[in-house]
Amino acid sequence: MLVNSPFSEKPAILGGIPCLPAGPPAWPFPSAATTQVLQEAQKTGLWGKYHGPWTKELQQRLCELHQKDEALLCSSGTVAIELALRGLNVGPGDEVILAAYDFEGNFKNILTVDATPMLVDVDRRNGNLDIELVEQAITPATRCILVSHLHGGLVPMRALTAIAAARGIPVIEDACQVPGAMIEGRTAGSWGEIGTLSFGGSKLLTAGRGGAVLTSSPQIAQRIRLYSFRGNDAYPLSELQAGLLIPQLDQLPSQNQLRQENVSHLIRKLGSDSGLTSLENHRLNPAHASAPGYYKLGLWYDSERFEGLPRELFCLAMQAEGIALFPGFRALHAIHSRRRYLQADELSVASECDLRMIVLHHPILLSEAESMTQIAEAVRRIQIHAVEIRQQTTPEIQEAVRKKNSDHSFE
Ligand SMILES: *Cc1c(COP(=O)(O)O)cnc(C)c1O
Question: Which residues, in sequence order, are CB contacts of 133 under 8 Å at separation 6+?
């Protein structure tokens, strides 16, 4: 079948023509709306302000989107999580439940407030916190649950918040990767006592840097304000940054929709035995509407389906094809000293994520469907030539591909 396909030619890493010769799209995409904001900022002088009409409007819009009373803007998603922990008064002696496969900054934030991460395994099909293991991870020292939605997987928040509420434990919902996603009828980030967003440079909503803490608790908001105010806002998001985010909020629903359509298309094109398996949201309650977010698309990599081609080499071969595909996060227990955390179970699925997860970065997901066909073809090409790739890809070639793609390797 592939004999007559132009893609049965040599993979790019062996000297063939890349499937997507233009390479990964640069992010963010320029738009008329952001150009207008920049011009207006210049004209009005708002670019020199910490606070103004744009920060107000952004706060209002974020409150509406998440059905929360307060949206505290700050300088990053990482800071938003730290402020959330401080808002809950998490400190020495406290334990914070966290998936063992998660953004490393979340682990470090828990250490920053002198608390201890209690690592819990992830769900085998969903790749995110396994809510069935949460109950047994709760101890008298548990102060909160910090939970993220990663790689197209969504945590069943209806069930998780019920478990937490029954034990009187607050939840911080990290929606940094999934702004505007829908989980069982509510926007991601709106389920917990606190939700967090990131506006980092690579994120779906971007101001280069930035973040937000969402809450309806006046006590939490007040504690965060007290901590942040040092005679002046210590962690502000500027007026200019807020101005740039507002038009992106308008575009978010249609962009989320397009990303989801492209992911479905790609998964269909890959088929069921490509050696790549996407994460599933099998535990979400189907009685309520859900729609994932795709900062990255997570896929399980099965090297056996690629003649034993190591995951790193597979990713490099895909990068040579012009596709921003990288190994996923390191599992937290795999990269931190045993003295830094507690663990509630064996963390065996998280260990597997550590070895097998790969992630496709989002900008390509706003392309036309043809690009998804090309990605699937690139996978097949590499599969067919896996043995040659393993044998012929010298350290020099690997280094050259790595160098060329370092810009596209984002957190
Ligand atoms: C990016 C990210 C953050 C941190 O956001 P920054 O703005 O980069 O500090 C936190 N959690 C998750 C899951 C993220 O992906």
Answer: 120, 121, 344, 345
